[in-house]
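Why predict the complex rather than its parts? Because the way molecules touch one another can change local conformation, and only a joint prediction can capture that. The input here totals 807 residues.
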Amino acid sequence: MAERKILLGNEAMAYGLLEAGCTLAASYPGTPASEIVGTLAALKRSGSIAMHVEWSINEKVALETALANSYAGRRSAAAMKQVGLNVAADPFMSAAYTGVKGGLVVIVADDPGPHSSQTEQDTRQFAMLAKVPVLDPLGPAHARDLLHTAFDLSEDYEVPVLFRPTTRVCHARQDMEIRPFRQDQPAPVFEKDPARWAATPKFRFLLHKQLNEKLDAVSRDSRLQPVQLNPAVSAEKAAGVIVASGAVCTHASEILKDLGLWEEIPLYYAPMPFPLPEDFLTGLLDQARRILVLEETQPVMEAQFRDRAKVQGRLSGHVPREGELLPETVEGIVRTFAGLPEAAAPKGAAAPGRRPTLCAGCGHRAAFFAIRKVFPRGIYPGDIGCYTLGLNLGAVDTVLCMGASISQAAGFYHAFRDSGQNSRPIVATIGDSTFYHAGIPALINAVIQGCRFVVVVLDNATTAMTGHQPTPAEGNTLDGRSVPKVSIEDLARACGVRHVSVGDPYDFEAFTGLLKAAKEHTRDPENGGMAVVIARRPCLMDRKQPKPDRKPVPAINDKCQGCGFCITHFECPALVFHGKEEAVTVDDVLCSGCGVCAHVCPHDAIEIPSQPQAGKESNHS
Amino acid sequence: MKQQIILSGLGGQGVLFVSKILGEAALARGLSVLMSETHGMAQRGGNVISHVKVFEREKGKPEGERDAATDPAWHVSPLIRPGHAHVLVALHEEGVKAHGHFLSPNGTLVCNRTPRTGPGDVDATGIARKLGNPVAANLVLLGFAAASGALFCSLDDLRRVLEKLGGPRRDANLAALEAGAEAGGE
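Output of the joint prediction:
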């Protein structure tokens, strides 16, 4: 009997790529997509696979790299989260026209909710915009299988295929049989064809025409037609039918069975929500009395019905226009559709939970506290990463997209300088990985536009939020080859910044000094300009980093007035508030021994004992 | 559906680890499992939830020959609806507030809480602290839940999963599981 394993959806997709003979996978990490290439990267590090695997500097570069490997006749994949495709939109749109040789599957994970993203955008609409087919898997095991079809489809029609799992597919775990990986690596063949690979606008028109013809043929492909999951009931006899795709289809399936409607309402699953075949759309409009469309997150299938008089969905207002379609939401919609009474609401609805916060001992917290201290009236454009949570500390005022902290700081600079308010300090914060990804052009632009503000690069030596993927500072490829390390300070200087400093935010006084010097530089009328301060402190959660020396767990002395300053302005999870006028305590399980909180208390009530305490006794008393 | 379990806790408490152990226990029993978990931003100290669904493995066509229409395992929703969980395992008492509504009216609550407010409560953190391993409160609670008969699997199943998992924490993990089981005593 084949070995059976429980795989995360993203692991299952990585296995699917390997089974299908993919030869190159490139990605930039982003929740909920990170573990797809993360799984491949781990296999690559252990020497178990031949595939070229890379954490690219950003999604645009990842997709372009994968595309060229496909031009050379080899199966390729790029993986990213939905907003990553915004970054890769330029190559993606154009790749639809040039088409591919070896199968190219672009896996883009959507995040309805959203749980860990800036937008709820529906990548399937990107497929419509670019005119490429998009597949929408049901769950982990199905995603693995459907990837095989995706590669076949891509090669048969020479078109890139979008593969769109949602968070509930990526981050579900399911048991499945383990299969062998395909071992052959086809030799690269690149046939020069400038009219296609380097097409000028005149030829692009022809490529567009070919793309339209490909898309028509793809919509009729027998492998990806919508399928009725409960064929015992016919659309003509039923009071209505449901068309669904992705994880929402599994909710609908379970709910129809639970409500005794499985034999009453036909449920169609569309593995390829775009392009839907014309025959299916017109056939259903002919046969069905009412059609309910369940899909995430925007009306893609619904919009393809030309006559929507009997179609219910997001456009008609029968399905909420935003938010994840949780099974309880789907149950409500299905009950209404079937004319059943509302479900009894369960007692005690969800309480607003705890908000996320930086980990105890995180170097970012120390850096943010220092920034607030040195620039009390500052404007703080922030960026995408763990350190977005600096907003809890009042040290992040804007968060837009990757790299925007620096360009937005420039925008604020121009706004205030042009109205004569030179004194408003601006401090942009950006993580190391985000700086490499999209911060460099913004920094060059700030320099050449004569901006004067401080950029603090929060360098924790990893891409922390998404699971500690390496950055270009690591100096090694995944298969262990040594490559040049690309240093942030060298990059900053090469961008034209004349004031660049590096410090450890744990060393609080010295780091505060660096910030003050940077502030002076931005104000120096003669030689001043942009300043970059690199706050270097490895992520505590990254097992690859050396463990820092632990200071003893801090002691709270009798000067503590329970004022809550440390809780509000420092928000370390290890500092526990017990109400006004009660002394704060330290949770010794959470405390990492960074010692920074001793600099925080306005009443000097937090002390670091000089001798390590005996054992690991708690301060709870 | 054999059993639907909600695991609730705070980021860093090991909710994911407990759900993995339960998944392996299901697999060892020849059952199928579908689980959903929280990743990314929400893991940073926020409320974390894991949905675990355990069900009979349907024999049908061999894998690889199945399609979307014929594989019943592909039609299971990865999420549990409010009011439908058979068991709620709360690694932190805040989990009862945040995720208590998932529990079915006939469901079983198991909660790491002191002082105890009911038969499903246990001071898992206190027990783990006594073992010198405060981060193992998750396994203490799991042992407690299994010993009190709340789960689809037995304490023995969980022991075997932890033994097979091995690693440098093997003995400490097993000790935590046993200490919890003792508190949940038959």
